[in-house]
Amino acid sequence: MLALTFIGAVAHAQELIVSAAASLTQGFRALGQQFEKDHPGSKVTFNFAASDVLLRQIIEGAPVDVFASADSKAMDGAAMQHAINSATRANFAGNRLVFVLPSKSPHRLSALADLAQPAISQIAISQPAAVPAGRYAKAALEEAKLWGVLEDKFIYTQNVRQSLDYVSRSEVDGGFVYATDAALMRDKVRVAFEVATPEPVIYPIALTRRSKQAKLAQQFVDLIKSPAGQKILADLGFANP
C-alpha cells in the first residue's frame, strides 16, 4: 500500500495544469504533446475558455500552474490579484482580428463601416466584459465611432470559438474572430476584412503563484518561447509577439 501511494504521488507530481485562452486550443494541444514527448512521465492537462473566465477560476482557487491569456488586460488583472508570479510573465504570440462571413454569404464587405448596411442584421461578437476578442473588437468599433451604431445588431458570445461556430453555421451574418480561428474553418467561413485594432493582439503567459509544479511549469513556458515552440504556433498562423 505504501508503494502504491508513493507511485500515485509521483504520477500526480508530474501533472501540469494549464489554463489558456480558447483561441490557443490547437496550438497548445500540439505544444502539450511535444512537451510530454520531451518530458517522459509528465502529463499536461488543459482548460480552455475565455481569458476572464479562467482568471476568475484561478482567483477562486482552481489548481492551475500556467495561465495564458489573449490580452494584457486579463493578465494585468491576474497580477493585481496576486494570482501570478509576475517575474515569469512574458508575451509569446501575436494574432490578428478579422471579420468573417459564412462561406456562401452573398455579402461583399471590405471595412467596418460596411457593417452598418441594413443587409447585415446579426453580428457575432464575444462579450467585451469577459473576452479579449470582444474587447479588441469593441475598441476598434469605438475608434471608428461605430459601436453605438451597430450595438443593436450584436449577438454576444461566451468566447471567440462560439462566434466562429455561429458564423460557420450561418446563424449570424458575420462575426469577429481571430485570423487563426478563421483558418480552422476555411471551408465554412471566409475573411471579409482584417480589423485594425488600437492595440496589437498579443498573448501573455505566466506561472501562477499557487503552482505546485513551478519547475515543470517554467519548462513548459520555455518550450513555448523556444524556436521549436514558436514554429508550432507559427504553423497555425500565430505571429511573433
Task: Please provide a brief summary of the model.
The chain has helices spanning 2-13, 25-38, 51-59, 72-80, 132-143, 147-150, 160-168, 179-184, 214-225, 227-235, and strands spanning 15-21, 43-49, 66-68, 90-95, 97-102, 123-126, 154-157, 174-178, 189-195, 201-207. The protein is an alpha/beta fold. It is globular.
Q: Portion of residues in helices? A: 25-40%
Mean pLDDT: 94
Helix/strand-derived category reads alpha/beta
User: What is the strand arrangement across the widest sheet?
Assistant: 2-1-3-10-4
Textual characterization of the structure:
The chain folds into two domains: about 1-95 and about 200-235, Periplasmic binding protein-like II (D-Maltodextrin-Binding Protein, domain 2); about 95-195, D-Maltodextrin-Binding Protein, domain 2, CATH 3.40.190. About 40% of the residues lie in helices and about 25% in strands. The protein has helices spanning about 1-15, 25-40, 50-60, 70-80, 130-145, 145-150, 160-170, 180-185, 215-225, 225-235; strands spanning about 15-20, 45-50, 65-70, 90-95, 95-100, 125, 155, 175-180, 190-195, 200-205. The strands form two sheets. It has a five-stranded mixed beta sheet. Strands 7-6-8-5-9 form a five-stranded mixed beta sheet, sandwiched between helices.
SSE diagram, text form:
Layout: H1 2-13, E1 15-21, H2 25-38, E2 43-49, H3 51-59, E3 66-68, H4 72-80, E4 90-95, E5 97-102, E6 123-126, H5 132-143, H6 147-150, E7 154-157, H7 160-168, E8 174-178, H8 179-184, E9 189-195, E10 201-207, H9 214-225, H10 227-235
Parallel strand pairs: 1-2, 1-3, 6-7, 6-8
Antiparallel strand pairs: 3-10, 4-10, 5-8, 5-9
Helix pairs in contact: 3-4, 9-10
